[in-house]
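Running co-folding for iron/sulfur cluster.
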Amino acid sequence: METMLYQLNFKRGQHIKPVTTVATEAARKFFIETYGCQMNVHDTEKAAAVLSGMGYQQVAAADDADLVLLNTCMVREKPQQKVYSRVGDLKNRGRRSKKKPSVKPAPIIGVMGCVAQAEAEKIFKKAPDVKLVIGTHSISSLPELIGQIDSGFPRAIDIRQTKEAEFLEIAPSDHQTPNLAFITIIEGCDNFCSFCIVPFTRGRERSRSAKRILEEAQGLVERGYYEIQLLGQNVNSYRGSFEGIEDATLVRADKSAFVILLELMAKYSGAARIKYTTSHPRDFNEQIVEVMDQYNNLCPWVHLPAQSGSTRVLGLMRREYTREDYLSKVAAIKNAKRDISITGDMIVGYPGETDADFEETLSLVREVEYDGLYMFKYSPRPNTHAAKRKDNVAEEVKSERLIRLQEVQAEVQKSRFARYLGREVEVLVEGTAAKGEGSLTGHTPCNKVVNFAAPNSLIGKLARVKITATTPNSLLGELINA
Ligand code: SF4
């Protein structure tokens, strides 16, 4: 493993004034602001574990922190730009302090995640107030990097690339949601879909051993966690070792490694709910549906991003499946004994997408009947193959297509949600609802958001709720029992 840990603007023997701004006698406080997917949420948990191990104390607001890390996302253009405006907000805290001594000094600002990995030293030029840049493989280097700042180096950066899964072994001490924990099973991606920056920011695929995953899950269940979410950019590509797994009936050559892992988790983790994301339609197979039918604790939800309904556009996107292939996987899910929810992602306005291609996307959405869909306008991402193509769909056309797609999905979702009216569902209560006093919120096993009135003492518990109404993006219900 090559280490790319180094300091910028430092010459041997040069005197550098320490730039540390935090008090050393009291516990230093940190805050991590997270953008993007569950992988980032989980990386935040790992970084929090490393910082807590260094004696730092986590606080709930950036204003109270001595160290603020922005855990960034680069999958689209907007969240990438947001990083720089956020650094501006944070540094202004220090500016104000010069006029008003009572106001706290600016915190040490660090950037981690995909923007850190992809933009590296450029971040220091674009945002000179950033002191730390921590790449996606470098969370375990936080003590060294912070140590360098403490010793007087003005900046520190680590953007190493590794083929090893060693950094995945940081076990978070706490998870962001009560009684719901993420476990990374595979990191990185080898697919190089033409629009996607992930292979450049997260590196090549690295799978963890099944034994380590199982032990982590069993430990979480012992600590009271009900739900485990298995994470990876493409979970179906899981290729981890099964060394040390005692049940020889599970580990068979005619089953994919991911199917074996699902069965292992269902049988031996003890978790009441197991979810996984994200699946790749090329690699998703009927064996996965069969194992989900067999074990009730494998939750009936599949996130299967199509990205387009047009075989021609899918070819341009290098997705390696056709519309028909995709629909055959959907048919396998719909033929399951259980009622399995399907969600997905869709991009409109990919370079070269015609009106006819877009109509095929709309018809696919109607045919699949997604329970939820993340919809985006295409935006070129640096280094990707698509960024070399002319972005030839006008911005107004992209916007119109996005609105039409959202309208079609809203109709589909309304009828999908209506099937829950009168049903009793199990909800893992995650916290208070954003709107509505006295209202709690959580997810069902099929990953629907349910809001219902109940006391806060139910947070972190499983509740049975009768669905009484629907909204465009959630279900509303009445508590039956906890
Ligand atoms: S499968 Fe494609 S879209 Fe998904 S992370 Fe890999 S390259 Fe990106």
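Result summary
Residues 395-418 form the longest helix (24 residues).
Residues 222 and 270 are 9 Å apart (CA to CA).
Job closed.
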